[in-house]
Amino acid sequence: MTHQIILIFHLLAATVWVGGHLFLSIRYLPEALQKKDASILINFKDKFEPVGLPSLLTLLITGILMAYHYDVTFTQWFSFSNGIEKIVSIKLILLFISVGMAINAQLFVFPKVKSENLRPVAFQIITITLIGVAMLVLGSWVRIGGL
């Protein structure tokens, strides 16, 4: 029962994290690119961060708890020795990339974003969205025993 509760929190957090980025990519990014208006993206970022970042933290915590439930402990991360370990390891790699990109976005991309050049922020948004979707798909494969 505990695993099921953790899974529910994980799925709710994934809904917020991935759904928010899909909404940003599909709804706000095209508008910002068309209008060449960085404020559209900055406004979304400022409103999404208070719910998005706690969701990401929830994903991290619940993901680690579920990995341990499947007997994929810290010592087995990145061993790629069975289907579940492969998924956990790939998701951790994608998580590290996501965190690195989040730091990059906060320190370098958003502070320097200009309406006349939205390519760096568009690249960031599309990449993080694709990573989120990939992690979602990988998570769904746990049910069938992994890769």
From TrEMBL:
Alphabetical keyword list: Membrane, Transmembrane, Transmembrane helix
Segments passing through the bilayer: 6-30, 51-70, 90-109, 121-142
Protein's name according to its UniProt entry: Copper resistance protein CopD
